[in-house]
Amino acid sequence: MFYEVVEDGSGFDAVDADEPAAADLLDAFEAMVTEAAANVEVDRLVGEAGLSEADATAARDGEVDGMSVADAAAVLAAADSDRDADATVAEVRDHLLMGMATAVLDVDAIAAKIDADLTGQEVQQALEGRTAMTLGQLAEILAVIERRKP
Q: Do you know which Pfam families this protein is assigned to (predicted)?
């Protein structure tokens, strides 16, 4: 889902598929989550998606940089009953790992190229789901991977 903004544009023309910038990816993620959150009542985001009221309000206001990928996926799932939040998160992780293999990147190389203050070990933990990854971190990691793919 989130990686689709690079693959097919998904209506987000600001993302250059050949040279995606982390800021452009984050803007596309923000638009996606904000649009979905606007179509769901705050109470439902809190109850169904499991967000705090503050996070639900932030999602509706477009403040998603620090939102976890899992919470963002829950917002998308709340807005579209055909989506499953856990499956979306798993797809994102799979896409990142396959992209790393295609781009011949390891976690240390990614950590060295992103602005997020993450070590290679922390990047690996985020990719494996052992620690939460924010949309901001996802945007940076995905931008590095996509720029290095042949």
A: DUF5791 (PF19104)
3-state secondary structure the chain: CCCHHHHCCCCCCCCCCCCCCHHHHHHHHHHHHHHHHHCCCHHHHHHCCCCCHHHHHHHHHCCCCCCEHHHHHHHHHHHCCCCCHHHHHHHHHHHHHHHHHHHCCCHHHHHHHCCCCCCHHHHHHHHHCCCCCEHHHHHHHHHHHHHHCC
CB 96 within 8 A of CB 89: no
In tens, the pLDDT along 78-131 reads: 999 888 999 999 999 999 999 999 999 999 999 999 988 899 999 999 999 999
